[in-house]
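FAQ
Q: What does a multi-component entry look like?
A: The components come first, one per line:
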Amino acid sequence: MSAPALFTGARLVDPASGRDELGWLRVENGVIAALGAGAPPPMAGVAVREARGHALAPALIDLSVEVRVDPAAEHETVETASAAALAGGVGAFIARPCGGAAFDAPEDIAAIPARAAPVRALPAAAATLAQAGERLAPLALLREAGARLVTTGSGPIAEARAARAVFTAAAHLRLPVAVRPEEPGLAAGGVAHDGAFAERLALPTVPALAEPLQVERDSRLAAAAGAAILFDQLSSAGGVAAVRRAKERAPHVSATVSAAHLAFNELDVGDFDPRFRLSPPVRAESDRQALIDGVRTGDIDAIVSGHAACSREDKRAPFPDAAPGGAGLETLLAASLALTRDGGLSLAEALAPLTCRPASLIGLQQGRLAVGAPADLIVFDPEAPWRCRAETLVSRTKVSPFDGRLLQGRVRLTMIAGVAAYEDAGERAPLHSRPEPTATR
Amino acid sequence: AGKRLGAEVVNVSPKGSSMAKGESLRDTAATVDAMAPDVIVVRHSSPGAAAFLAREVAAGVVNAGDGAHQHPTQALLDALTLKDRFGSLEGRRIAICGDIRHSRVARSSAQLLHLLGARVRLGGPPTLLPRDPAGWGAETATADMDEAIAGCDVVMVLRVQLERARGAVVPPIAEYRQRYGLDHARLARLAPDALVMHPGPANRGVEIAADLADDPARSLIRDQVEAGVAARMAVLERLLAPAEAAA
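Then the predicted structure of the entire assembly, as tokens:
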């Protein structure tokens, strides 16, 4: 524990309460001790940090980050993802295994939180053994080992009876179940949106209809079992509408969208650009607009990075054969802030799906600027422009759909439990060179 | 085509090579590129394979077919065949018929013929038609074969992929032949002066009657084969000496 810290001259942004004003915030013993508008009252024995008008908000909470547990690989590990998270202002994330692996045994996940520290990495338990969709994984033991939610893997559980068993078990343990909604038969082998563009490219497609179909089925099964269900990374207007209907029918339905799906559409695939080989695929512009609307209305609860643990080698193949996904931790904030410019959201509204809403979905105390809440905070400049260069990202995943893009929004400080874990002075020209971050512990 | 131009030609095929054992395209590309070829001609089952290869190697890349995406040299030879026969393609009505959706020949030829001023129509079973024919360079896409070929100058017939016919997507062969098969009788009724093309290999007796395929008065299939070598020679020559060829 360090000395109490006092932020002054900060634009306090707290989506949970709607606060957006210049003020001060005091951190003590790892929690937020006090905060207020304007100038702070006189205080002694504090380390003062002048925010100079930058925004001060809860650190981001990312509900989908892929990691490889074995540290040898050239792929993203728990440790390297944690470093990338700090650079991106993410204080907590749900850790999912990459590719075919499954967190289906307590020993798989027990070490993850310690390895990610100070970032809070919360493992996602596999719903079934080896994610084969047949036999239940030991969910109670996995929860004891630190799991915060259950995931059905890269797709839903195909067999309805098995799905129902998973929902029942998870409901009993009060663990939400995250499902990637894609009707498996329709989606099989697909790598692109089934529009005219992919048809000309002759790419195998995932029909948009596959998403609402699966939302319908799984929301009803989950409701019957009393489980909380989280639809993971919607991609279509039909999916958003189906989630809205599911929310009207039953409680404990939620949904996420990835930052990339808010930014890109099917045309970005261009000349078979593997950076846009994503799962779910990027779809039509009308779908993208529906996803943005969904965030605005709250039909979509959280924005995730969908950070993938793939390497450059995994992407070096013809489009249908390239691994899906890309880096997302370091672009999550900037990509979401674009909603304040193009999507008509206020800063607090754009940050809600990154802070208080994901926190409430998995029962975290973080995600709000409130007395007594953990001091997981970020200071950021919402306007600062920078160009994303995949090869200079902190993450080991060096491919990104945002590669080469001009973004706005830069983290200057990430603090976890009252300790500054990442700082970026960023005085040099941000457009042409990426300032070296100076990490502090 | 390469040999006719005096080139050294090396064939790399999946059978009996490390590719059959699972070596990836990028590794094969690196191996081949290490031989410092001037041009790599690639035929691959994945759409986008040629675009991918072009980003990976220093050599020039010719797409000889990437999945169902494109077959540019086929389109060139088809256009060459028709130019030899008609002079100009402007306003010529050309029907492309068959399994359009899964055809790289349809994509490439419709696009090129449209660029050259022809009026392209697409015909085939409803499950195999594109939803956006205009984006393909075609005026219409129809499941009615008679409507597709009525009044056409040229009917280009595509091979029905028998392996797909066993799946749920293509109608059974007997139905296909009856509704979409091209023979003398159908042509006489709807397009009495039309010429017939086929990219080969043809399923004689299915999408095209054997006697029609062989009829020298109607069929351009032999001309296509001849044009094929010439077109590919031209492509290679162009790639190898682009500045000179453009002059």
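Q: Is there any commentary attached?
A: Sometimes. For this entry: Residues 428-441 of chain A have pLDDT under 50 and may be disordered.
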